Structure formats: structure tokens, C-alpha cells
UniProtKB/TrEMBL annotation:
All copies of domain Dienelactone hydrolase, residue ranges: 14-228
Protein name: Carboxymethylenebutenolidase
InterPro entries, sorted: AB_hydrolase_fold, Dienelactn_hydro, Dienelactone_hydrolase-like
Organism the protein comes from: Gloeobacter violaceus (strain ATCC 29082 / PCC 7421)
Signal peptide coordinates: none
One Gene Ontology MF term: hydrolase activity
UniProt-listed PANTHER family: ALPHA_BETA-HYDROLASES SUPERFAMILY PROTEIN, CARBOXYMETHYLENEBUTENOLIDASE-RELATED
Taxonomic lineage from the root: Bacteria, Bacillati, Cyanobacteriota, Cyanophyceae, Gloeobacterales
Length: 230
């Protein structure tokens, strides 16, 4: 069952897509979008998590720039998506996601345990939620720019799972190496490296989608979330 809700933050309010499990209750999950907004891909991801038993909520990250963005990873949409990404304030984004986290915890049927799962831009933000929020568990898919905040690794006190593409064209090899070295020092961080794969390998119908690797990563995510959210 899907619905829309409004989440209040200190600077205003923003919308979110909600997918609920058939049972009507379960742990919460803040699903953090890519640079394309709450598009069909993100709604499908939330729906899949709902089928797995989670109350999955996708907040509108770009509401401060342009509410209701829905783009794809091709043509002029791709150019617009990168424009929004370059204008996006990650620190304000984390503030919004912390507000979303609190709102999800208050949703009817939520068990009180809430995690995050993020992709691309959302993968970076899931990492920052691990360092700056009290989310119960966090999952990052091919986060871009994590190397700029490695000094925060020591702040992580709850489990974090990182899916890292071995040939991510948006993360330089040297940056990828620094990330792997830094997170290896924190036993709460689990890292999976996918050799030979490019950015967004788990985006269904995307230009770089790799079905076998996506299914492997998604299975690892569900196992991880089940272990830490119940």
C-alpha cells in the first residue's frame, strides 16, 4: 500500500512517498534517493522493501531547490540532475533526513527501529546519517563523495553497510582506496567491493545495471537490515 505524507523540518515541510508492508507494521526505512528525485525507480525500490516487511519512506531531497523532481538517467534529464546535485547542500540534507527519521519512527505501525538505505547521492547521505544521526542501521550503495568526510568515521556507533563499485566512474581509484582504508578501522562497518562494476550497477533499467551483482547486493542488504532492525 502506497501513500504520500508531509514531513516538517526546521525550515519548512517536504513530501515523501510511503510504501507499507501488507501486515501493516514493521521496522521503518528511510530510502534516500539518487540525483533523479522520487522517480519510478525509487518508488519501486520502496515498494520492494515494503514487500520485505518494512515501512519504506522516500523523502523529497530536492524540495529546497525544486519540489517534486522526477528524472531519468539519460538525455537532458541527466544534465538537470547533475545541476541539482551540484546545487544541493548535504548538511541541510542531513538535517532533513534526521527530521524524516523522526517522522518515520512516529508512523502508525512502525516498531520504532528505523534504518536508512541510500543510492548515489543517497549513498553518501546514508554514510552521513551513520556519522551524524541515531538511525539504527545504515546502508550505502555506491556513495559519491564519502572520501570528503572520512574524518567522521570515528563517530559511527551503529552498523553501516557499504556497497562499493570497483570501477565507479564517479569515485576516483585513489579516493576509493582512502575510503576502504578508513572504514576498515571501524568494526561496525561492513564493506562489499564489486570488482569491475561501474556506478549505479543496482539501478534497475539504468544504463549500467548488472542484474547478478544487483541481486547479490540487495540480498546482502536484506540480511543486514534483518539482523539490525528485526
Amino acid at each position: 500500500m502506497a501513500e504520500r505524507i508531509t514531513i516538517d523540518s526546521k525550515d519548512g515541510s517536504f513530501g515523501a512517498y510511503v510504501a507499507r508492508p501488507g501486515a501493516g507494521f514493521g521496522p521503518g526505512l528511510v530510502v534516500i534517493q539518487e540525483i533523479f528525485g522520487i522517480n519510478a525507480t525509487m518508488r519501486a525500490i520502496a515498494d520492494a522493501f515494503a514487500r520485505a516487511g518494512y515501512i519504506a519512506v522516500v523523502p523529497d531531497l530536492f524540495w529546497r531547490l525544486e519540489p517534486g523532481v522526477e528524472l531519468i538517467d539519460q538525455g537532458s534529464d541527466l544534465e538537470k540532475a547533475f545541476g541539482l546535485y551540484n546545487a544541493y547542500d548535504e548538511d541541510l540534507g542531513v538535517t532533513d533526513l534526521i527530521a524524516a527519521l523522526g517522522a518515520v519512527r512516529q508512523l502508525e505501525g512502525c516498531t520504532g527501529k528505523v534504518g536508512t538505505v541510500g543510492y548515489c547521492l543517497g549513498g553518501k547521505l546514508a554514510y552521513l546519517m551513520a556519522t551524524r544521526s541515531d538511525a539504527d542501521a545504515n546502508v550505502s550503495y555506491y556513495g559519491v563523495g564519502i572520501e570528503r568526510n572520512l574524518e567522521e568515521v570515528g563517530n559511527i556507533s551503529r552498523p553501516l553497510l557499504l556497497h562499493i563499485a570497483g570501477e565507479d566512474e564517479l569515485v576516483a581509484p585513489a579516493a576509493r582506496g582512502r575510503i576502504l582504508d578508513a572504514v576498515a578501522q571501524n568494526p561496525l562497518i561492513t564493506t562489499y567491493l564489486y570488482p569491475g562494476l561501474g556506478h549505479a550497477f543496482a539501478r534497475v533499467d539504468g544504463t549500467t545495471y548488472q542484474k547478478e551483482a544487483a541481486e547479490l547486493a540487495n540480498g546482502r542488504t536484506l540480511t543486514f537490515l534483518s539482523s539490525h532492525l528485526g
